[in-house]
Amino acid sequence: MTPRIGFSSREADRGYFLKWQRDYWFSIRLAGGEPVRLYPEIVPDPAATLDSIDGLLLSGGGDIDPQQYGQTLAGADPTAIYPPCDRMEIALLHGAMQRHMPVFGVCRGIQLINVALGGQLTQHVDGHTGQTNSFAAPRPHEITVRPRSLLDRVMSAGLSLQVNSYHHQAVRDSDLAPALIASGIAPDGIIEALEHPVHPWLLGVQWHPERLYELDDVHGRLFVAFVEAARHYRQTQSPAKQTF
């Protein structure tokens, strides 16, 4: 059976999907999964939604409301904040973790994972995007990969990776949630990948591997491994719950 991958979206609008999200759809399909777009209007009951999918992808998008991590505006873009999406994604993440469901976060997704598990964000950093709120100008750079981490095992490409960068918010070491470990670090210390050391498959990356045409094909391994983990979940998981 083809695993169903729910990927989060700010809104239902087709134009929003075509501009910002269709690369997720293609990447999931290419990796052997069935993409299912999730947005606040169709997720009134997160538990019921999770019953219908096998993996959760928290996608890129706007800024998370600083109130979610106990801060006031200090660099976040107020026009990019959409609290209904924050609430939906946080509820889905906690539910997915209780079910041992595979979780993959991309860009905003890594930040959402960190915030939902008790971390914070640095609301603005310079030098990690060529043009704010645009896919027109990435800022490529190297990251260092933590040996024997999930990221290392999935990528199997050595301890240095070239990534594309489009973000203006970030997770620094001082922001990191207690339950998480950093598995990818930029030269300036920004955390570019994080994961949960106990959950069966939970990984967040700050770059955009769905834009494979900007990157080496090795980045497609992230989607292949995620979809395979979702397939395993579909085949083997019981409804037993566990709290992390």
Descriptive account of the structure:
The longest helix is centred in the first third of the chain and has 17 residues. The protein has a nine-stranded mixed sheet with strand order 2-1-3-4-9-8-7-5-6, with helices on both faces. The chain is globular, with a radius of gyration of 16 Å. The chain has one domain: 3-Layer(aba) Sandwich (Rossmann fold). The chain is an alpha/beta fold and 244 residues long. The chain has six helices and nine strands, in the order βαβαβαβαβαββββα.
Short description:
By secondary structure, the chain is of the alpha/beta class. The chain has helices at residues 14-30, 46-51, 83-98, 108-116, 150-155, 220-236, and strands spanning 4-8, 34-38, 55-58, 103-106, 141-145, 160-163, 181-185, 191-195, 202-205.
Name given to the CATH homologous superfamily = Class I glutamine amidotransferase (GATase) domain
Percent of residues in helical segments?
A: 25-40%
Q: Report the biggest beta sheet as strand number plus sense, adding barrel if it closes.
A: 9 strands, mixed
In CATH, the topology is named Rossmann fold
Model regions low in confidence, pLDDT < 50 over at least 5 residues: none
Please state how the strands of the largest beta sheet are arranged side by side: 2-1-3-4-9-8-7-5-6
The residue-averaged pLDDT reads 93
Strand content: 15-25%
Q: Architecture in CATH?
A: 3-Layer(aba) Sandwich
| Tally of alpha and pi helices | 6
What is the CATH class name? Alpha Beta
N- to C-terminal separation? 28 Å
User: Secondary-structure element order, as H and E?
Assistant: EHEHEHEHEHEEEEH
Structural class: alpha/beta
**Whole-angstrom Rg:** 16 Å
